[in-house]
Amino acid sequence: MRIFTMILMLGLAQSAAAQDKNPPEEQEIVVTGLADGARVVEVDFDKVWKGCAECKRTLAKLDRLAQGYRDELEVAGHFSSGGSTNHCSKASPSPLLTFQRSSAEPIAARPKTAQSLADELCAARVAETSKKSFAAVAQQYVRPEQSRLLAHMRSFLDQLGPHLNEATEAERVAHGANAGLTDTKRTRLSAKNLKRIDVTEAVIRRLDAKDFTIVLPDPPARGPARK
Questions:
Q1: What is the mean pLDDT of the chain?
Q2: Any bridge partners for residue 29, and if so which?
């Protein structure tokens, strides 16, 4: 099971939500109503979804479900790499088209010959064509797979949520705490001088002892095109 796949998915989820400056899942949650000095149990959610036994089983399945996305991404890369800069003398793209260099760059550092400038212009056109090819293929084939992958990830987290809340509440009661937090990274408490108790490992043990299954579709059979 490759954890990097899940990191990739989270990154994609953040990218998809970037159009909204304040997406709901990224907004900070402020908990009020607690007295200063209250006892609070806290859970590191990232450690839970990566560490509980059922979570690991689901992550392995998610990794298999991600194969379609990886395949389409690889194909898109092959399409976009069709243009080679070999016939451009392997020059770097010209700043005249790409604006990759500052206008304050010393003149002496720029191409001194017509041929070197032509090679850089050639490389710039190849790079632009490659970029457009990748975008076109990605739009039609990669993004649908990406959307399916994100939907599976969201389903995983949504199904885990109730079990996590139940385990956290059990730890809150066991520690006689006033509140239980399941996502400390995006939660802020208004009270001061709190007595914080990290119950992450205890919550994972409770989840491992519980009989529950996170349901995701089976990965599609690999056809002749996928070896």
A1: 75
A2: 187
Domain assignment of residue 119, yes or no? yes
Cα(136)–Cα(76) distance, integer angstroms: 9
At 31, is the secondary structure helix, strand, or coil? strand
**C-alpha torsion 147→217→24→55, nearest 10:** -120
Q: What gap in Å lies between CA 214 and CA 160, rounded to an integer?
A: 7
- Whole-number pLDDT of residue 227: 45
Tell me if 8 is assigned to some domain: no
- The yes-or-no verdict on residue 102 having pLDDT over 60 is no
**How far, in Å, CA of 161 to CA of 159, rounded?**
6
Range scoring the smallest mean pLDDT among 1-15, 57-71, 76-90, 163-177:
1-15
Domain holding 151, by residue range, is 27-209
Which strand (E) or helix (H) includes residue 148? Answer: helix 143-174
Secondary structure of 112-135 as H, E, C letters: CCHHHHHHHHHHHHHHHHHHHHHH
Distance CA 196, CA 189 (A): 11
Residue 77 is predicted with a pLDDT of: 73
Q: What distance in Å separates the CA atoms of residue 222 and residue 227, rounded to the nearest whole number?
A: 7
State which H helix or E strand residue 213 sits in.
none
**221: helix, strand or coil:** coil
Domain membership of residue 218 (yes or no) is no
50, part of any domain: yes
